[in-house]
Structure to design on (261 residues):
């Protein structure tokens, strides 16, 4: 992480247990403003659980999460989202009978006060923000960013998997967050779709400046896009560094490939 960039997310000694099973153990890392941080690890490493803790879906057993210097302990999921943390899911969830634009509008309306600030609306003008004009314009701009403006009036049920994943990202961005947690945006996509999605994530950061923490099984995609990689194995951080360093790390290679018998 560049010392010149402000820390947006700081995770301190995070542990999560479910009954007698420890899924996360003493996990610590940080993410700076505008940084793309990749989270990788074998199946069962605790990656999605970590995102669930960061977004408030589950509470940590111990440890702390700070967002923009604020302790998130005890906050509900919606309150964490209101502060500026958005989330996408492994399996896209949408309202299939609604249009693509209507699905993205849900994110924009939830973050309407943040959208109002983005467009320079004063407190006295928040009624205009909620009236729909500004919010709709913002939602449409997010669809344009992910390349789906031509599908805005299509029902969600008509979209393929990649398009549904892109709507997930557009809906998250429509909240005007400072931090986006992306959970396996590439899973289930073909090589061409993966390349397109990699370009999209780069474009999102370039055009919005948002900080991204990205969990992914497609390691090639992570290595070509992110600035820094954090590797989890059995709930513990076993390596942190630039993609080139992680690719040569003996502990990471062993975690993925095992040891010779």
């Amino acid at each position: 992480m560049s010392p010149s960039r402000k820390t947006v997310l700081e995770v301190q000694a995070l542990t999560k247990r479910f009954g007698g099973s420890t899924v996360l153990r003493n996990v610590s890392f940080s993410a700076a403003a505008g940084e793309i941080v990749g989270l990788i690890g074998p199946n069962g490493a605790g990656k999605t659980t970590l995102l669930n803790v960061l977004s408030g879906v589950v509470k940590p057993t111990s440890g702390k999460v700070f967002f923009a210097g604020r302790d998130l302990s005890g906050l509900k999921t919606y309150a964490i989202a209101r502060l500026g943390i958005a989330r996408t899911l492994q399996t896209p969830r949408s309202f299939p009978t609604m249009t693509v634009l209507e699905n993205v509008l849900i994110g924009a309306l939830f973050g309407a006060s943040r959208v109002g600030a983005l467009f320079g609306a004063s407190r006295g003008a928040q009624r205009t923000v909620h009236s729909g004009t500004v919010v709709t314009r913002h939602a449409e701009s997010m669809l344009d960013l992910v390349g789906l403006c031509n599908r805005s009036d299509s029902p969600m049920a008509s979209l393929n998997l990649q398009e549904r994943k892109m709507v997930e990202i557009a809906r998250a961005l429509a909240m005007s967050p400072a931090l986006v947690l992306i959970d396996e945006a590439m899973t289930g996509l073909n090589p061409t779709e993966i390349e397109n999605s990699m370009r999209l994530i780069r474009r999102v950061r370039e055009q919005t400046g948002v900080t991204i923490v990205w969990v992914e099984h497609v390691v090639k995609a992570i290595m070509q896009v992110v600035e820094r990689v954090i590797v989890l194995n059995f709930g513990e951080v076993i390596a942190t560094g630039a993609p080139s360093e992680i690719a040569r790390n003996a502990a990471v290679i062993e975690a993925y490939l095992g040891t010779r018998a």
User: Anything to note?
Assistant: Residues 191-208 form the longest helix (18 residues). The chain has two domains: 1-84+183-261, 97-176. The chain has a mean pLDDT of 88. The chain is about 40% helix and 25% strand.
